[in-house]
Amino acid sequence: MKQNEKISPAVIRRLPRYLRALEDLENSNTERISSGELSALIGYTASQIRQDLNHFGGFGQQGYGYNVKDLKAEIEKILGLGRQYKMVIVGAGRLGQAINSFISSYSDDFCVTSLFDVKEELIGKEKHGVLIRAVDDLTAYLKENPTDIGVITVTKENAQSACDALVAGGVSGIWNFAPIDLERPAGIPMENVHLSDNLHSLVYYINHPEQI
Amino acid sequence: MKQNEKISPAVIRRLPRYLRALEDLENSNTERISSGELSALIGYTASQIRQDLNHFGGFGQQGYGYNVKDLKAEIEKILGLGRQYKMVIVGAGRLGQAINSFISSYSDDFCVTSLFDVKEELIGKEKHGVLIRAVDDLTAYLKENPTDIGVITVTKENAQSACDALVAGGVSGIWNFAPIDLERPAGIPMENVHLSDNLHSLVYYINHPEQI
DNA sequence: ATATCCTTGTTAATATTATCACAACCCCTG
DNA sequence: CAGGGGTTGTGATAATATTAACAAGGATAT
């Protein structure tokens, strides 16, 4: 990265999109790509693509474009991929199981080591090869088994205490699926997936198609 | 809405957040709320809250603030809630089932009428009281049973054809969980939930906590 | 009634984000 | 190895989005 420049969140949210496009290109054995071609593929302007990438360094070559393999490697490095992230999921209901299944099939870079739940009847069972433990044991488990990411898929009512337990256990980041904005110490990143909010936005645009 | 003013997507994405806060306030029997108090609750500046709401009309009163019940009703009206939206889910795997379960427990405003899948062994079964049909019958089903929203929870490879079938069947909007940007006719709104992108952004901030 | 206190709606200022435009300069062809 | 074509990196400009500031006017207390 150039200096200690603060990168805008808008740029960061686009990086995974670039990565997906580059993976597709690599799979189709494309060796090089220009910002203009990338623009046609993913819809951002060529100018924006060049400016985004330039926040992190000049990965392209004039008259040539970008080397697909190299650029993909650079973006993976920027994001911090290339090592394994250990995860736990708090909430072993349908959503927790779906996320567990998604992660295990998605990439070896992410590994769910345990699920947690309050429900007696779930504790001790396995889902997708992952053991469900009692949520009371969460913090203790995390201290024994250092974990990078905590996923919250419990109800709104239980989300804050799940978050507190994850923080107490020393996770580095939180992925929250509960429809609530959780309190946490500064410096702990959190990504929210608010399904209901998302659905409501969709409904707005269904009713105002002229605004799309 | 004031005139035919085009409302920025940034504003639209905040409306569901306001709605959530107002629901909580209503549940705790709070009658009135000022933009300053709302700001403390949800983190947006008071100025932004007032400006957002004013795009749609003056719902507040000087020296008093906003009436919780009324403001909630206004935002529901703006979003287009208050009627039932019929939905189908294409992809009856874990994610599809999780979304189905989420929706049925979330609100009566949304109703999943059918799941669809390619897998022979799933077709004819019921999940959460909803029948799984063959994806080949999707468009025909939609023509018989007018549907507002199509949810895509199939693999990346099958997502575009699912999208095409939904559009051919006349859905008004699409909620896409596949990690791909789908082609569709202009005027069909689509909300994307790209879990992998989201996870990658989280990983970036885990590795650059100073940038939060 | 009246005066004070609040809080909105709204305009202006600032900050952030996206686009444009082009010089620099590398690839590629012959 | 020279010239034409193509593409980047980047500073300037435009567009959006957010925050600040305050006049207008209702709520509340007395």
Q: Brief description of this entry?
A:
The structure is a homodimer of 212-residue chains. Chain A has 212 residues and is an alpha/beta fold.
Broad shape of chain A: globular
The helix/strand class of chain A is alpha/beta
Strand content of chain A: 15-25%
Question: What order do the strands of the largest sheet of chain A run in, or round the barrel if closed?
Answer: 5-6-4-3-7-8-9
Largest sheet of chain A: 7 strands, mixed
* Biggest chain contact: A-B, 62 and 62 residues
The tally of helices of chain A reads 8
Describe the structure.
- Two copies of one chain form a homodimer.
- The mean pLDDT of chain A is about 95.
- Chain A is α/β, with parallel strands linked by helices and about 210 residues long.
- In chain A, helix 2 crosses helix 3 (about 45-55).
- The first copy, chain A, is built from eight helices and nine strands.
- The interface between A and B is large, with 62 and 62 residues.
- Chain A binds a DNA duplex (30 and 30 nucleotides) through helix 3.
Question: Topology, please?
Answer:
The structure is a homodimer.
Chain A: H1 9-27, E1 32-33, H2 35-42, H3 46-54, E2 66-67, H4 68-79, E3 85-90, H5 94-106, E4 110-117, E5 126-127, E6 130-134, H6 138-144, E7 149-152, H7 156-168, E8 173-176, E9 190-192, H8 195-207
Parallel strand pairs in A: 3-4, 3-7, 4-6, 7-8, 8-9
Antiparallel strand pairs in A: 1-2, 5-6
Chain A binds a DNA duplex (30 and 30 nucleotides) through α3.
